[in-house]
Amino acid sequence: MRFAACVLVVALAACGDSLSPEEQAERDREAVAMVEEANAVEPAINEVVPEPILYPDIERHDIYGASCAYAPGTNLGARVIARQADAFMKVDGEIIRFAADPGARELPYGTRSLYNGREYSLRLEIAGEGVQTGEEVMEYEGTVSLRDRYDRVIYTGTGAAQCGV
């Protein structure tokens, strides 16, 4: 669609009577402005609802070791599992892997506050000192924000974040 509009603008600019160099330059500027405006339009926001990461997903993708599991809301099913080097989220039945941003703020168990993927970026927050809920498990108030490639929030949730080995 944008390509067709660009071709039409260029074709129309080429038609007509002979123009002075100043008039041609003005038409060219207008055509460039129209193309830039058409290309600047962002697509509609596509909200995402992450699914629980189940034990078969953990086995299949080898998601073991020290981590923080975020379960927004009152649901006990983890929507995000973050580790030192990567994090995982399940969307539309597929596990998405994110790489840790080494410059991001460090959270418990070596996890990070920012993880990046091909289509999305994942931001994690932990509030408070946490409460020990197991021998090597701490529970915090956690927030998950998923952003699209235009840095727009397409999912956010707050709830339990369990961190441990």
Largest beta sheet: what is the strand line-up?
A: 1-2-3-4-5-6-7-8
Could you say which structural class the secondary elements and strand pairing correspond to?
alpha+beta
Distance between the termini: 51 Å
Shape: elongated
**β-strand amount:** 35-45%
The chain-level mean pLDDT equals 89
Could you describe the largest sheet, including whether it forms a barrel? 8 strands, antiparallel, barrel
**Domain module tally:** 2
Q: Please count the beta strands (DSSP E, at least 2 residues each).
A: 8
Q: What pattern of helices and strands is seen along the backbone?
A: HHHEEEEEEEE
Low-confidence stretches: 1-9
Helix fraction bin = 10-25%
Give an overview in words.
There is one protein chain. This protein is α+β, with helices and mostly antiparallel strands. It folds into two domains: 2-39; 55-164. Strand 6 and strand 7 (137-147) form a beta hairpin. The protein is built from three helices and eight strands; from the N terminus they run αααββββββββ. Strands 1-2-3-4-5-6-7-8 form an eight-stranded antiparallel barrel.
